[in-house]
Structure formats: C-alpha cells, structure tokens
Design brief:
The chain is of the alpha+beta class and 74 residues long. It has a domain at 1-41: YefM-like domain (YefM-like fold, 3-Layer(aba) Sandwich), CATH 3.40.1620. Helices cover 18% and strands 20% of the residues. It has helices at 6-9, 13-21, and strands at residues 2-5, 26-30, 33-38. The protein has a three-stranded mixed sheet. A hairpin with a 2-residue loop joins strand 2 (26-30) and strand 3 (33-38). The longest helix has 9 residues, at 13-21. The radius of gyration is 27 Å and the shape is elongated. It starts with a strand and ends in a 36-residue tail after the last strand. 1% of the residues are buried.
Length: 74
Amino acid sequence: MRNIDVKKAGNCLADLIQQTIDGDEVIITQEGQPIAKLLALAKKPRKREFGSAKGLIKMADDFDKTPDDFKDYM
C-alpha cells in the first residue's frame, strides 16, 4: 500500500495506475488525511465456451423414472 499526497498524485498518475494494475493499493491523501483509494478494476471474466463443462455434470440413470411415493399424485 502506498500513500501519496493529492498534489503529487497528479504528476505521476500513470505510475500510480500501473502500480494498481500490478496489485498495489494507492491511498491519496490531503494534509495527511486519506481522501481516496485508487484500485484496479476487476478483470472481465472470460466468455464461456460451449462444452467447457463437459464431463462435470452427471445425470442419474433413473432421472426420468417417477418416484414410487409420487405415483399417488398422478
């Protein structure tokens, strides 16, 4: 975590942004008091690909079979 005065932050904004991209947290202060926190945005999740869950889900063999205790309601 890095603290930097608001007046100095304007002069090195590109460097501060790079630090947040690298995972650091930057606190901007004014007269020694924290006034803002600079954080990198979360990366967008990857787009799901067709078939990416193949083999992860299993359907029971008797999925379509009506349970015995449910037959009275049919």
